[in-house]
Structure formats: structure tokens, C-alpha cells
Amino acid sequence: KYRLRLLNSGPSRFYEFYLVDGRDREQSFTYIANDGNLLPAPLLNQRKVRIAVAERADIVVDFSRYPIDTELYLVNRLRQDSTRKPKDVRKPGDRVLKFIVDRYPPQQDLSQVPNALRPLPELPTAEKLATLNVRRWEFDRKNGLWMVNGRLFDRDNPRARIDKGSAEIWELVGK
Predict the structure, then answer these.
(1) Which value, to the nearest 10 degrees, does the dihedral of the CA atoms of residues 70, 76, 77, 78 take?
(2) What does the buried/exposed string (b/e) look like for 17-54 if buried means 16 or more CB atoms within 10 Å of the residue's CB?
(3) What angle do CA 72, 74, 79 make, to 5 degrees?
(4) Which of 135-139, 149-153, 160-164 has the lowest mean pLDDT?
(5) pLDDT in tens, 117-150
(6) pLDDT at residue number 157
(7) Which of 66, 98, 136, 139 is most buried when burial is the number of CB atoms within 10 A of its CB?
(8) What are phi and psi of 24, to 5 degrees?
(9) Do the Cβ atoms of 58 and 27 come closer than 8 Å?
(10) Is 93 exposed, middle or buried (0-12, 13-18, 19+ CB in 10 A)?
(11) Whole-number Å distance between alpha carbons of 44 and 31
């Protein structure tokens, strides 16, 4: 079993990844983590995972299920012709990464993905939420640049900071 971290480090591209064999048949994997780190429980028998800009997904692939010389591919089937948004999902997709099963492990892999990965933190009560500051973030493009609330991002702008340990409600709006 291998844990693979899929990271979209590009500025505007979305991906929808599938694990397929040499005849383009979808293979299953276990989805265990995303941007928020480990999921509460693994998502078993997944056949695809979509990640947007600056997102990540961690999957576990059990290569011991495949005979020696098996070729598997990580393919992206999400078409995107512009920087604005993805278009559609279409087979066979673009091959991104090739795996060749070329040997068995020196000893049997008895590891298992646990049924529970981590508990989620408790959400604030309605009373607590009513006391929090609400910030609206409107994302748009102007002259080919991303704008936040009508302005280019400026890390030295105190309005773009919150105090460590504080909490706010954020409304994220994409145009």
C-alpha cells in the first residue's frame, strides 16, 4: 500500500483524477485526507477525486492486488479550456503518472487503513456564532488578475489579517 499525495499547485487548473489500468478500466483506491488533513473516516472504493487550485488529496493504493508487470495510470479526465472554470469530464483523459508493478514486497504488507482516522472538532454553538465578526470575501478577476473585494491582495493590509486564536465567520463569494 502506498499513500499518494495529490497536490494542485497551479494557478487556475482543476483536476479530476482516476486510477486506470492499461485498458482504461477504473481502479479503486481509498481517499484518506484533504486540505483539512485526515478525514474522520476513510472513503473506501473511490474511483475519482477532484481537486481545485491549491487543494490536495491523499489516497492509498494497494498495489499488491496487481500481478507483476501491471501498468496503472493516474489520468485527468476533467477538461478545462480557459482559466475561468472546468468544462466537462471526458474519457480517456490525459495520463499524468504511470505506475509499473515490478516486484512483490520483501514481506507481506499486513497494514490496514483504520476505520476511524480522526474526530472532527466541535462546531461553535449558535450563541457563540452570534458573537463572531462576519467578513465577506468577494473574488473576481480584473485585467487578468485576481481581486479580493475589488482590490489586489496586499499582505501588509491589516484588513487581511485576523488575530491568532480568534474566530470569524467568512462568507466566500466567487463571481
Answers:
(1) 170
(2) bbbbeeeeeebebbbbbeeeeebeebeeebeebbbeee
(3) 140
(4) 160-164
(5) 999 888 888 998 999 989 898 988 888 888 888 8
(6) 65
(7) 66
(8) 65, 25
(9) no
(10) buried
(11) 7
What span, in angstroms and rounded, lies between the C-alpha atoms of 63 and 99?
A: 9
What does pTM read for this prediction?
0.76
Instruction: Spell out the alpha helix ranges (H) of the chain.
Output: 126-130
Percent of the chain's residues with pLDDT above 70: 96
Mean pLDDT of 164-168: 82
Amino acid at 128: K
- Residue 160: phi, psi to the nearest 5? -95, 15
Residue type, 165: G
The mean pLDDT value of the chain amounts to 91
Neighbours of 76 (CB within 10 A): 20
Helix or strand or coil: residue 133? strand
One-letter amino acid of 41 = A
